Amino acid sequence: MKWCYLEEKIGNYVGCREIYKAWMTWNPKEYAWNSYCKFEERMGNKENSREVMYNYMENINTPEAYLKVAKYEEKNLNLKSARDIYENGLKKFKVNENYIKSFINFEIKNKEYERVRILYKYAMEIFSSNNNNDNNDSYNEFFNEYLKFEKKYGNIKDIENIIINKRRNYYENEIEKNPSNYDVWFDYIKLEENFGDKNSIRNLYERITNNHPIINEKKYWKRYIYFFINYAIFEEIFCENLENSENIYKKLIYEILPSKQFFFSKIFIQYANFALRQKDLKKFRKIMGYSMGKYLKEKIINYYIDIEINLGNLDRVRQIYESAIQKEIRNGKFWKNYAEFEINYEEDERAIGILELACNVEGLNEINEIVELLKELYLKKNEFKKLDELKERFKDNNADIMGIEENNKNENENNNENNNENNNENKEEIIENKKNNNENNNFENLINNAINWNNNNN
Question: Tens of pLDDT along 147-193?
């Protein structure tokens, strides 16, 4: 190529052409043919350039080569020649998805819509004849593109109905073979959502939701649950039928799921979000209360707490934590999260009381994390006597959390005077808040007793 470049640079165009011709006899790669073609174009020899392209197509003999020459002819407005190349290539490369798409785009640009329809039907026939997954994907892609084409350029009512009914028949046959094939159900409902009316979509959802999984295992029910969620969203958003949407949630939560041994947090969260969108806080709390009473899951509790924090209902957050702890008193995460919640709102005394109670629970899991958090609070409050007692109490634990460094004590003792002044002010605020608090439940009293015990030992 450098030789050709040099000959062209010095103006020896005849010599350059001869070099290119000799080079082409070696059947070089595509870049050589491209270079030769561009040289002839620079020389203004369109016929020579065209001849080079056709020789390139014959020598390379791939779908890409045919496409390149067809686009070359199209660029030079030789539409008949371009179409001839596309047709010849289609005979050679029958099942080439990209080639057919390019041919279709060529005919669309030239407004040959009847030819486009023929090509789409040809493509769908070719790719539907084989049942492998790749061909199915190609068929679906051509099917969807054909529908879009008819929407834009054709009479959609007649042609679309024929194609859609064909797909419906296919899905019905697959469902008849295997009613638990949820892949087919998903494709079927997607077809109806795109092209069906509201009643046909609703009827199909009813059929799907009444078709329970045969095997009573969570992995099989997980996909089934999503049909309910999608159905409820369809009724709420697209049909604006809130009553139907709520009935769908209720059917799943109160009729179907209670008989199962597994739980789906997502459906309760979706139902709770539905209630919030209707600005029905009472219903939202009822849903959350039921879910916590029936299935105490951390995901549900965290979601409930986040909503109440955003609403500014801190006392209700405390009630949620207390309710969770009473149901699973040995669950260290609940105790730890509760204490961290109090710490975030600068209620260190309450947090200490909670953690002290947690340390008294026999068989508590994650005890090391509980003790670590309590240690940090004692250090913050300069309660070194309590620190030593805590170390002595849990000295048999195989955790490094009790390795309390002496230099931490010294550092805190140096700042003791300033910290005590701030702590006294905080304690006065805490005491004043407690006087105004009229809550009278057993768990609250336990926490207050722990706080008083902690202050008396100071």
Answer: 788 778 877 576 667 678 778 878 888 888 888 888 899 999 999 88
Q: Which of 257-261, 334-338, 355-359, 401-405 has the lowest mean pLDDT?
A: 401-405
C-alpha 182/C-alpha 220 separation (Å) is 10
**Do the domain assignments include residue 143?**
no
Question: What does the pLDDT look like over 51-76, one tens digit per residue?
Answer: 767 777 777 778 888 888 788 888 88
Q: Could you report how far apart the first and last alpha carbons of the chain are, in Å?
A: 91
What CATH number corresponds to the domain at position 420? 1.25.40
- Residue 215 DSSP label: S
The radius of gyration computed from the CA coordinates of the chain, to the nearest angstrom, equals 37
Q: Which residue range is the domain that position 317 belongs to? A: 313-458
Distance of CA 263 to the CA centre of its chain: 20
- Total number of domains constituting the chain: 1
Residues 292-302: tens digit of each pLDDT:
888 788 899 99
Please give the DSSP secondary-structure letter assigned to residue 284: H
Spatial contact of 222 and 262, defined as CB atoms under 8 Å apart: no
Secondary structure (DSSP) of 149-189: HHHHHS-HHHHHHHHHHHHHHHHHHHHHH-TT-HHHHHHHH
CA-nearest of 205, 104, 198, 207 to 148 is 104
Q: What is the pTM of this model?
A: 0.54
Whether 5 is covered by a domain: the verdict is no
Residue 445 belongs to a domain: yes
Question: Does 12 score more than 70 pLDDT?
Answer: no
Is 270 a member of any domain? no
- The alpha carbon torsion through 172, 178, 180, 185 (nearest 10 deg) reads -20
User: How far apart are the C-alpha atoms of 47 and 81, rounded to whole Å?
Assistant: 14
Phi then psi for 330, rounded to 5 degrees? Answer: -90, 5
The whole-angstrom separation of Cα 235 and Cα 266 is: 18
* Cβ contacts of 296-304, under 8 Å, gap ≥ 24: 296/324, 296/327, 296/328, 297/263, 297/265, 298/333, 299/265, 299/269, 300/265, 300/268, 300/269, 301/334, 303/265, 303/269, 303/272, 304/272
- Whether the per-residue pLDDT at 122 is higher than 90: the answer is no
